Description:
Elements: E1 7-11, H1 16-27, E2 31-36, H2 39-48, E3 53-56, H3 62-75, E4 81-84, H4 102-128, E5 132-137, H5 150-169, E6 175-180, H6 192-195, H7 203-216, E7 222-223, H8 229-232, H9 239-253
Parallel strand pairs: 1-2, 1-4, 2-3, 4-5, 5-6, 6-7
Helix pairs in contact: 1-7, 3-4, 4-5
Amino acid sequence: MKTIGNTILITGGGSGIGRGLAEAFHRLGNQVIIAGRGQKTLDETTAANPGMKSLTLDISDPKSIQSFAEKIMKDYPSLNVLINMAGIMQPENLLEKPGDLSAAEKTITTNLLGPIRLTAALLPLLRKQPRATIMNVSSGLAFVPLAMTPTYCATKSAIHSYTQSLRYQLKATNVEVIELIPPYVQTTLMGDQQANDPNAMPLKEFITEVMDLLQSQPTAKEICVKYVYPLRYAGEPDQKKYDAFFQQFNDAMHK
Length: 255
């Protein structure tokens, strides 16, 4: 991915990893547009970064996605980078309320259908550019699921698979497809406790390493910081090693 001279849309760009990436690309002189549900959060981010733009988007609503895409195509015809960052993560107790699928359905709609719908809506615009990039954000948990958040992990695994297929189908076009695979990072994805957890990778360090990788490996298909290696490569090359890691990882998280 070329890291300068772009018009970049980042969903979920008002906070956490999304904001960190938005600010990093903004500092490099790119035109950055952030999108999300909360106007206040978007306004705070753009106020802190003069020149950055924002638009509201409910990534879980197909109608919102369609009208949003139409506005993007009208107002930002040079858009050439889409970063599908927006997502939610909720714990689910499959024994306590097995019939309550509200969290699962909301997670699938937001984390999986949202990026698929937005990508489909904006792909014609991206195809018109001399060069373009789609970056889908999965997770280390796509490769080793955290049992307490089963649907979140399933959606991220699906995003990994979808990204591979999308890359293959677009291989002869001007659109490159990248997967960003974050580890456990100090954000508020699951509340303030995560943001202050010393076991999580500091957000600033994560963003710095990601940008370094993008600049030093411009043709990379996956962006993996070293902190995520134990999850990303847990099953390679020995399946028994993966099974043992899965057990150890989840036992540790449930203590």
